[in-house]
Design goal:
Helix 1 packs antiparallel against helix 3, helix 3 packs antiparallel against helix 4 and helix 4 runs antiparallel to helix 5. By secondary structure, the chain is mainly α. The protein is globular. The chain is built from five helices and no strands. The longest helix has 22 residues.
């Protein structure tokens, strides 16, 4: 059974939605009140996601200079950073929970992403 159900096109849509979330959610959740770095790490992460998504070779990329596999590697690096941040910076409570949820979500999107569009189309269709 192939669990890679997200095409690069769907992954691209999720990238831009996640980027907006990374920029907006810290303000909505008031993450900056307990840890200013927590707010700005998320905002900068969202802006970086927009930047490398615009450069990715997929439907919603603009420059198309970053191969999709490299994009997935950048996503995994971001996920590890999100998961490690609460330990590295001593965050707890809502701030730690936010980064754990974001990190796990990114890992899931990468694990469920197919490298090409045809990989998710069943044979015979």
């Amino acid at each position: 059974m192939n669990l890679r159900i997200l095409t690069p096109t769907i992954h691209g849509l999720l990238d831009y939605m996640a980027a907006v979330g990374l920029i907006v959610f810290p303000f909505v959740l008031n993450l900056g009140t307990t840890a200013p770095l927590a707010l700005w790490l998320s905002v900068i992460g969202g802006m970086a996601l927009i930047a490398y998504s615009l450069m990715t070779d997929y439907t919603f990329g603009f420059a198309k200079v970053v191969p999709f596999k490299a994009h997935l590697a950048l996503d995994l690096i971001a996920a590890v950073g999100f998961l490690a941040a609460p330990f590295v910076f001593g965050w707890s409570g809502l701030t730690a929970g936010y980064y754990f949820v974001m990190g796990v979500a990114v890992v899931l999107v990468v694990v469920l992403s197919a490298v090409d569009e045809a990989a998710v189309v069943p044979e015979g269709v």
